[in-house]
Write a structure and sequence with these properties.
By secondary structure, the chain is of the alpha/beta class. About 35% of the residues lie in helices and about 20% in strands. The chain has 3 domains: about 30-125, Orthogonal Bundle (Fumarate Reductase Iron-sulfur Protein, Chain B, domain 2); about 145-240 and about 385-445, FAD/NAD(P)-binding domain; about 240-380, FAD/NAD(P)-binding domain (3-Layer(bba) Sandwich). Residues about 450-454 have low confidence and may be disordered.
Length: about 450
């Protein structure tokens, strides 16, 4: 490693006017002409595989046909009745491995209908200006429900319960609702404050009281919620992050990628946000891609993702990997971190080459050092299992165990989203969890007691 290396983390690497352009929508919205042309490519399959591939079962052929007919509001209603966060999912959902992957046009021609972009076109068309309500609340039931966590799962659950006529109090630890949609997704995917616009639309249904700054941190709190409310939904996400567990991890300049993305999303002037000249991101998922690309957009001279396995094993989709490389991010494979190097602040990371042996990763006997001023850890998030145990919630794989309706082992408590051991850690799955729990909660609230037994 060069002896001349000096830590270089600072703000303002770009001209002030460059930030807005760099962090604008990386996929521009469709124009009306483009949307009509794309909608007419759809075959409107009777047994639509795209609909079956969607975790929220959006009727894809129906909403696309309505776009083709010029009925944008009808298209949006068709989407939102199945997925009330359809606008955000259209931006963040990996459609290339879900609905678009099984699109008949993709199978026949290698070019699927742009379902995600059409979904965004429809929902944005509805929410962009003054609009009549899409949903009206049912008559009040007199039942109160607590929803803990205002991320995708909690928002979907709260909205569905409010539609059914129940009164909902929505708790969240953060200053704003939205969860990862607000704090954890790359800014260029959800530009222009869209996450908060969607939250405000969801709250327009009425019957939902939002209380921010409240965190579930003890069994006593859950017991109090069960006494005060007829039912409780937990959509608490994954608040913790894993450690590398190697020497040098505490050096200045070593940060959690999730915290880096959150700070970027909440910084009003990106010119004030420090970034390293040489950034190394350790991990291979969506968070790693988002952190590495945004480092480059902030003006980092180099941004390198290092993953312990190969490209095919990376949790991030091939489309996301390609996006990173288009932005100048270098991706290195088969390298596991051994030590973060530096004195006081990071100056590099030492990696050990890996290979597969009988299905297991083992050192290949070669090492590589990558210079860095900033190291971002993106090796996964975890749940605070100690609080779960205190609450008496059964666990599976370090997450909350639930049945097919989202019920936990504790009476009158449901859960969904990333905190449960069910489904992938994607926004669309979290929405599906929130909706299924709300449906089951509504059925029980209408037929069961008005209060939990405590």
């Amino acid at each position: 490693m060069s002896e001349e290396h000096r830590a270089d983390i600072r703000p303002g690497r770009l001209a002030p006017q460059a930030y807005a352009a760099r962090f604008a929508d990386h996929v521009p919205p469709l124009t009306e002409a483009q949307a009509l042309l794309e909608a007419n490519r759809c075959l409107y399959c009777y047994d639509a595989p795209c609909m079956q591939a969607c975790p929220t079962r959006i009727d894809v052929p129906s909403f696309i046909r309505r776009i083709a007919e010029g009925n944008v509001r009808g298209a949006a209603e068709s989407i939102l009745v199945s997925n009330p966060l359809g606008g955000l999912c259209a931006r963040d959902c990996p459609t290339e491995v879900l609905c678009e992957q099984v699109c008949v046009r993709n199978i026949q021609q290698g070019q699927p209908v742009a379902i995600g972009r059409l979904q965004r076109y429809a929902v944005d068309g509805l929410l962009s200006g003054a609009h009549q309500p899409v949903f009206l609340r049912a008559p009040a039931t007199g039942r109160r429900v607590a929803v803990v966590g205002a991320g995708p799962a909690g928002l979907a659950c709260a909205h569905a319960l409010a539609r059914a006529g129940h009164s909902v109090v929505l708790f969240d630890a953060k200053p704003k609702a939205g969860g990862l949609n607000e704090y954890g997704i790359a800014a260029y995917k959800v530009a222009g404050g869209y996450a908060q616009r969607e939250v405000q639309w969801l709250l327009e249904i009425g019957g939902i009281e939002l209380r921010c700054g409240w965190r579930l941190s003890s069994a006593e709190q859950l017991a109090a919620l069960r006494r005060e409310y007829a039912a409780v939904f937990l959509g608490v996400g994954l608040a913790g992050t894993y450690r590398l567990g190697i020497p040098g991890e505490a050096l200045a300049g070593v940060l959690d990628a999730v915290e880096f993305i959150s700070e970027l999303r909440q910084t009003p002037d990106l010119a004030t946000l420090p970034v390293g000249r040489r950034v190394v991101v350790i991990g291979g998922g969506m968070t790693a891609i988002d952190a590495a690309v945004q480092s480059k957009l902030l003006g980092a001279e180099s941004s390198t993702i290092v993953y312990r396995r190969g490209a095919e094993q990376m949790p991030a989709s091939r489309k996301e990997q390609d996006l990173a490389q288009i932005h100048g991010v270098r991706i290195l494979h088969w390298l596991a971190p051994v030590e973060v190097l530096g004195e006081g602040s990071v100056r590099g990371v030492r990696f050990a080459r890996q290979r597969l042996e009988a299905g297991r990763l083992v050192p290949a006997g070669e090492e590589l050092t990558v210079e860095a001023d900033m190291v971002l850890k993106a090796i996964g998030q975890r749940l605070d299992a100690s609080v779960l145990s205190e609450c008496g919630l059964a666990q599976q794989g370090g997450r909350i165990a639930v049945d097919e309706s989202g019920r936990t082992s504790v009476a009158n408590v449901w859960a969904g989203g990333d905190c449960v051991a069910d489904g992938d850690d994607l926004t669309v799955y979290a929405v599906a969890h929130g909706l299924r729990a709300a449906h089951d909660m509504d059925a029980q609230l209408r037929n069961g007691p008005a209060r939990a037994d405590g």
